[in-house]
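A protein record pairs a chain with a discrete description of its three-dimensional fold. The following entry can be read in just this way:
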Amino acid sequence: MDAILSFFRSLSVGTDTQYALFLLATGATVFLFVLGVSFLVLAAIDPVRRRLNEVAPMPKERGKLTARVLKATEPFHKFLLPAKGSERGKIEQRLMFAGFRSSNALPLFYAIKTGLALTLLLGIVTWSAWLPQWSVTKLLFVAMLAAFIGLMMPNYVLDHMVERRQKRLRDAFPDALDMLVVCVEAGLGLTAAIQRVAEELRFSHPELGTEFAQVTAEMRAGVERETALKGLASRTGLEDIRGLVSLLIQTLKFGTSIGETLRVYAEEFRDKRMQRAEELAAKIGTKLIFPLVFCLFPSFFIVAVGPAVVRIMDVFRFLGDKMAH
């Protein structure tokens, strides 16, 4: 920054011109940075690119970057990872719910947390060079606050990703359940029915389709059906899927009809969805209180009572002027 300022001072132009050039260069830098970030975001959420990657996956640099980050932070894993097994297991479970099941997910997550905290801390310390009026105590407080935000932000992002993924799984589960009932009643076995549902959900609901495909892969690899089904419930973390898994395990143990069991559960699940919808609808009136009180009622009172208040003020002002004369 000092070199840039010295360069602008060396120019044979006035102070105002130097200041304008400096602002122009800063604005251009910020614009290019925002433009680059927007291109990256648009490329990441582009549906055409995502569909092409699903049909014909292209080589990704993300894996190379992840491997480099893990290799660079490997000597510090014992310092980055939490010592308590309960805390580590909790974060691993949240990462699994978000769809990150690699063995490197946990160290990478804590490496991101540490790197973000250090980046914000060093950024505040560097920025303090342009704020000489700040005291050491204030600077230390702001720097520690920035580091704390850097440590907490990945947790918030992870919770948001878990919530979004579970919402997609929850929205896809009714369709999967109906297709599973149809496949079982058509004469397919449980493994074949789950495989068929996984193929049908491949593009419409890829998350749930992947989960079902993993269940069938485990069953064909020799894993017991009960263990594979419990793995489905533990990976998703949804109560609806956990109920289906418990029902299927009981059916396999007692030898009852899978089709009849699935049909009964589908009817109960529809009733449960209706009750959930009615519950959400009943909460709308309570949730509308705050928008009505703070947004609608003030404007309504201004429009309805405002003219009368203005007229009353004019009358009192007229009476006051008349009494004064």
